[in-house]
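Recap for those who missed Tuesday's class. We walked through two folding examples back to back. For each one, the amino acid string is listed first and its predicted structure tokens come directly after. Nothing is annotated here on purpose, so try labeling regions yourself before you check the end of the notes.
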Amino acid sequence: MSNSAIEMTNLLYRYAERMDRGDLEGAAALFRHARVKVSNCENLLDEAGILLIWKQHVKIYPCGTPRTKHVITNPIIEIDDASGKATIDSYYTVLQATNELPLQPIAAGRYHDEFERVGQTWRFCFRDYSLLELTGDLSFHLQGL
């Protein structure tokens, strides 16, 4: 795997890690230079918009986390070094366990991400966050829907 591919897949994994730690601000910061498509919003969201949605809907437990594990797999990486653009299509599965909910998958879908290289650094420039395909019991994860 090239250094560029590693750098971009690490961005995918940093997103998962920050969400699972309950660091919604840190996860949103990864999209500072990006636009995010969500299913129930016609407009593309920026960092502040996606953070607002997460703060309104993601349940954070007293431990400071959403009690989830985001597992990102099957990345299909396409890099155009000449233009400094790239895409990654990947799968995600969200696992959750709480005192009331035994460990189980609660959501699965796909991410379509676009990246741009600025200088020597890759960053998100677009995410399609609307590709939720399978759901389980989301009642311990999402609120206010």
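Example two. Treat it independently of the first, because the proteins are unrelated.
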Amino acid sequence: MKFRPLQDRIVIKPLTAETKTISGIIIPDSAQEKPVEGEVIAVGNGRTLNDGKLSKPELKAGDRVLYSKYTGSEIKLDGVDHLILRESDILAVYAK
């Protein structure tokens, strides 16, 4: 499915949370933390500034990012969980 977010919104596919600790203990679903790491799937055109100019996004599809824990809107695309959030909710981009 083709999907393009509007303005400064970004579609992220969250990476799966760890289900096992380093020592091998299995973490039940109810105790797992929400993922804060994901891959950028699609990026909007950017935010319109007060003077009418367009501020282009710094991210691109394929970037691996860290984002705020309880942010964005959860959606399903082709049966897979994704998040839509604003570019300002992104905390960092992993260097390649």
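Answers for example two:
The domain at 9-16+34-93 is CATH 2.30.33.40 (10 Kd Chaperonin, Protein Cpn10; Chain O).
The first strand starts at residue 9 and ends at 14.
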